[in-house]
Amino acid sequence: MQIKIITIGVYGFDESSFFEALRKANVDTFCDIRSRRGVRGSTYAFANSQRLQARLAELGIRYIYRKDLGPTQTVRDKQAAADKATKTAKRKRTELGEAFIEAYHTECLDAFDSQSLLDELELDAQVVALFCVETAPEACHRSLVADKLAKTFNLEVENILP
């Protein structure tokens, strides 16, 4: 099975452009790697778990939730401290802090069995979307997961931006 990985965040999209981006990328499997599967505010209500899953099902896109890839509160606190030190608003962040990256590797990625994700996919899976909320992949843990999958399995990765 040769698959392609795409990454996508919700910030910067509206509902129609988000689902259109998935459609244009030919996503057949959507992997939600958020710790918490809700987004505050009516603008992004479509990305809340139940609504998101219902819309994906309408589009014929399979949904997988991998809580083991969501950063823990301890890891998120490392990024919050870095953002506070640099006076960077969460939605304006353009990269992850070193403390977050180290903590995420230690608490999540080092124990993550990449093959377990591939084993969870249907046999006909071709394009898998890794999903979290941040706009820029470099500012989100999804880039770390995508990088590990790309290196482990020599997979192509494409980042979808609004």
Structure commentary:
By secondary structure, this protein is an alpha/beta fold. It has a single domain (4-160), classed as Rossmann fold, CATH 3.40.50. Helix content is 40%, strand content 14%. The chain is built from six helices and five strands, in the order βαβαβαααβαβ. Strands 3-2-4-1-5 form a five-stranded parallel sheet, sandwiched between helices. Helix 2 links the parallel strand 2 and strand 3. Helix 3 (73-86) packs antiparallel against helix 4 (98-109). The longest helix is centred in the middle third of the chain and has 14 residues, at 73-86. The protein is globular, with a radius of gyration of 15 Å. The two termini are 29 Å apart.
Structural class: alpha/beta
Main beta sheet: strand number and arrangement? 5 strands, parallel
Number of strands: 5
Shape: globular
CATH topology: Rossmann fold
Please give the CATH architecture: 3-Layer(aba) Sandwich
Oligomeric form = single chain
Beta-strand share of residues: 5-15%
The CATH class = Alpha Beta
Mean pLDDT: 93
How are strands sequenced across the largest beta sheet?
3-2-4-1-5
Number of helices: 6
Rg, alpha carbons: 15 Å
Summarize the structure.
The protein contains six helices and five strands, in the order βαβαβαααβαβ. With 162 residues, the chain is of the alpha/beta class. The chain has a single domain (4-160), classed as Rossmann fold, CATH 3.40.50.
